[in-house]
Amino acid sequence: MAPLNIKKGLQYGCLIGTGGIGSGLFFAMNENHTLGREESRSGRYLDYHDYCKLHIITHYVKTLLGPGFEVIPLGKVGDDDVGRRLIVEMENTGFDLRYIRVSLSARTLFSICFIYPDGSGGNLTPVESACTEVDESHITQVEPDFMRFAGRGIALAAPEVPMAARQALLQLGTRYHFLRAASFISAEIAQAMEMDLFCLVDLVALNIHETATVAGMEAEKDEPLAIVEAAIQTLMNANPTIRLSITAGRKGNWSWDGKNLVHVPAFQVETINTAGAGDAHLAGILVGLTAGLPLCQAQELGTLLAALSVTSQHTINPEIERRSLNAFTNKIGYSLAQPVLELLEE
Predict the structure, then answer these.
(1) pLDDT > 90: what percent of the chain?
(2) Distances (CA, A) of 324 to 92, 95, 218, 267
(3) Which of 229, 334, 244 is nearest to 281 (CA)?
(4) Which residue ranges form the domains of the chain, and what is each CATH number?
(5) Which of 57, 75, 237, 258 has most Cβ atoms within 10 angstroms of its Cβ?
(6) What order do you get walking across the sheet with 109-115 strand by strand?
(7) How confident is the model over 182-205, as pLDDT tens digits?
(8) What is the pLDDT of residues 115-168, one digit of tens each?
């Protein structure tokens, strides 16, 4: 794998993150009507490899930044075949796995995604898994590494572990002057606001549905730009210095750096599987910021990464690295900023 061509040095030396580590399967329905109670439905399993948010984001960050950048995930897997496979894959990517624990009482997080022929679908995710056992005591164990990278690290709080654990991680990030990044699913927004978590975040990544929840609007009815602008105002009332990344699928994405709202259109590609695209987008932004890009240019790198991610059936596209991203720039029909192109040069 070829990391980015970073000539000016890295702004940060590590990413310490917590969030979901798990897997799943995809099931394609043969008919479009919504699955009903007590109904049997035929279909087929898809040969897609599924991963959870923390794993997706950190995989791309490590792959693109290379051996000079440390990735330290905090999480739990079960004492089962899925957990053992994920540990091997993370080890092969080059993660520091000192804080990955194996639960003897809960299984590795494993979801079932069902897809209708029209492309819509849903997800079945267990309430209890090894991920739900991650707590504050688990997080505090990594404090020596926060001290080691004080002022030059990224703290990432991703869904699928309890909010209290994410809060503890962001508090450590605050104490040791890390760039603090987080994402939340729609069902967590109200709790995140009650816990004042947005005050502990420098960069929050949301999709348009999550953004609508922040704004008290409806993604299906209201205009995306109006939703984005309302959410920015709401979050700036809580944290005047917050920066945002907001994805909206085919309608593109927005970034807010505290002064400027920038829109980047979705790059037109042949889509196979959109799962994980938002996580790839956030990974690209974190990589761009680490490489010294301003947010609006890091946003372009995130858009490129997300676009290439959906051309794979897997939620982690194993082909993504500098050379494949460089080749992909000729297919997107969009002129990337010169500093972004320089990172992709041979």
Answers:
(1) 78
(2) 20, 22, 37, 16
(3) 244
(4) 14-183+267-329 (3.40.1190.20)
(5) 57
(6) 43-46, 22-29, 109-115, 121-124
(7) 999 999 999 999 999 999 999 999
(8) 888 777 777 888 899 999 999 999 999 999 999 999 999 999 999 999 999 999
Q: What is the value of pTM for the model shown?
A: 0.95
Structure tokens at 131: 């991920």
Indicate the pLDDT class of residue 8, thresholds 50, 70 and 90.
confident
Question: Which residues make Cβ contacts (< 8 Å) with residue 198, sequence separation at least 6?
Answer: 192, 204, 235, 238, 239, 242
pLDDT in tens, 58-89: 999 999 999 999 999 999 999 999 999 999 99
- Helix and strand numbers, DSSP H then E, in the chain: 12, 13
Looking at this protein, which amino acid is placed at residue 312? Answer: S
- Cα radius of gyration (the chain): 19
Read off the tokens for 99: 């804080």
The sheet with strand 153-157 has its strands ordered as 100-103, 70-78, 14-18, 153-157, 179-183, 203-207, 243-247, 253-256, 261-264
Conformational region of residue 93, where left means phi above 0, alpha means psi within -120 to 50, and beta covers everything else: alpha
CB-count exposure of residue 118 (10 Å: 0-12, 13-18, 19+): exposed
Three-class SS of residue 20? coil
For residue 75, the model assigns a pLDDT of 97
A 10 A CB-CB count for 53 gives: 24
Q: Give the Cα separation of 313 and 269 in Å (integer).
A: 13
Q: Rounded to a whole number, what is the distance in angstroms from the first to the last CA of the chain?
A: 13
d(CA 103, CA 150): 30
- Looking from the CA of 229 toward its CB, the CA atoms found within 13 Å total 5
Amino acid found at 26? F
